[in-house]
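Following the same procedure, backbone shapes were mapped to integers, as reproduced here:
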Amino acid sequence: LLPSLPSSQPVRESIGILTIEQQLQSVLASLATSVIINPALQYFVNNPNQRRLVGLALERAIKEILQSAVERSATIAAATTKVLLLKDFSTEPQEQHLRDGAHLMVSSLSGSLALATCKEPLRVAIGNHLRTLLAQSIPDQTTIEQIVQVVSNDNVDIGAMLIEKAAVEKSVREIDEMFQPAYQLRRANRDTTGQFIDITGIT
């Protein structure tokens, strides 16, 4: 499911695009209560203090792939939305209608792209980081691999959803910046009579 869309209020120039570090901190703040540890994993039952390693592995995995996944998904989604929406809404005089359509389309595209491209790399990254962390306290490689497989499968969706959310939020901010001229044109023509045409979308 896609996360709730950000507010449809105009983007203020002073806010701009959040840095990837700010997005990362926002994503990681959601991890503490989201990590899944299967109760069937006896190692964590016997060593409850080691449960923190799961969250640490997931955090490191997200840090590893967040930027590329978010940047790629948001950029492609925003560029596609701009081309299609400016054409489809070239005769739409209402700024809010254009904004709502842009937010809906770019959110759907960026979220789907992020999920499709990040899941497998994230699963591998979780496993790699957890494997390294567990090797410090578990000598048996077979046990490590069993834990890694279960934890990676259980937590990949959580990480992917957080990356999806970051991609959606970034793409909405990007499309609002791209569409500022179109928004301003519609505001400027709000009280004019006759048919409205935004030629930037059809030239």
About this structure: The chain has six helices and no strands. Residues 90 and 198 are 5 Å apart (CA to CA). Residues 95-134 form the longest helix (40 residues).
